[in-house]
Design goal:
The chain is of the alpha+beta class. The chain folds into 2 domains: about 140 residues, 3-Layer(aba) Sandwich (D-Maltodextrin-Binding Protein, domain 2), CATH 3.40.190.10; about 100 residues, Periplasmic binding protein-like II (D-Maltodextrin-Binding Protein, domain 2). The protein contains 11 helices and 12 strands. It is elongated, with a radius of gyration of 21 Å.
């Protein structure tokens, strides 16, 4: 084989990870359980585990997960000190990153109800927003999205200090449902051992699309994303991405 063709073949078929085994450094919020949690300088959770499977296990690229205050993590990606984020592709973030073509993860807000309640019987048959106003919800202090959602649809609600307190009110029948990030609620239900009594409705009341974002100053810019996009498309077509996310959301992360 001529030297030029031999060199080209090596370039095309050598995995990305062999270039000095340079890791892709990904930034996360350090205290966003169960999505990303940093303890003893180790960052784990649904999002790091998802990227481990997609990028390391399937594409052969090592990862370094870095938990930082969220504004700092974004600034580090903008400066090129970190390579990537997995988050909503806002216009501001797209000024300094390239995004994956496909959505990698949807952050879904679901409603949870108590199985033995009248609200469960009514809402499991028709969980449309219009029917929520006949029942009382729970909103965490400081959750502006929740307050705006309930006000917009004239839904009565009680306030609580955090997710666990809303779930306790729901368990006691003080409220009829609780809308929050599905993975966050599932994680707290496991911690409280309420899994036999509380269940999610099938409706998604909000969905925030997360994509992979790679810094324009990263050595992975324009090289990793084509392979990543092909992988995500394949996994969506065969259903393996949906199964992977389901397993991660129903695992214990905190």
């Amino acid at each position: 084989m001529p030297l030029v063709l031999f060199s080209l073949a090596i370039f095309l078929f050598t995995p990305l990870a062999t270039a000095g085994a340079q890791p892709l450094k990904v930034g996360y919020s350090p205290d966003w359980a169960p999505y990303s949690i940093t303890t003893d300088h180790t960052t784990a959770g649904i999002l790091p585990d998802l990227l481990n499977e997609l990028i390391t296990e399937r594409l052969g690229v090592p990862l370094e997960h870095v938990g930082l205050p969220w504004k700092r993590a974004q600034a580090q990606v903008k400066a090129g000190a970190l390579d990537a984020l997995i988050t909503y592709p806002s216009d501001a973030r797209l000024e300094y990153t390239e995004r994956s073509e496909s959505v990698v993860y949807n952050l879904i807000s679901a409603a949870f109800v108590r199985k033995a309640s009248p609200a469960y019987q009514a809402l499991i048959l028709d969980p449309a927003v219009e029917n929520l106003k006949n029942h009382r919800g729970c909103v965490i202090f400081g959750n502006d999205w929740g307050k705006n959602f309930y006000a917009k649809h004239a839904i009565p609600y009680e306030n609580a200090v955090d997710v666990k307190n809303c779930l306790r009110l729901l368990q006691r029948g003080r409220v009829d449902f609780f809308i929050q990030s599905r993975a966050v609620v599932l994680d707290n239900i496991r911690q409280l051992d309420f899994g036999n009594s509380l269940v999610a409705l099938p409706e998604a009341y909000a969905s925030i699309p997360f994509t992979l974002l790679i810094s324009k100053k990263s050595p992975f810019y324009k090289t990793l994303m084509p392979k990543f996009d092909r992988l995500i498309k394949q996994m969506k077509n065969d259903g393996s991405l949906e199964r992977l996310i389901y397993n991660l959301e129903h695992a214990t992360h905190s």
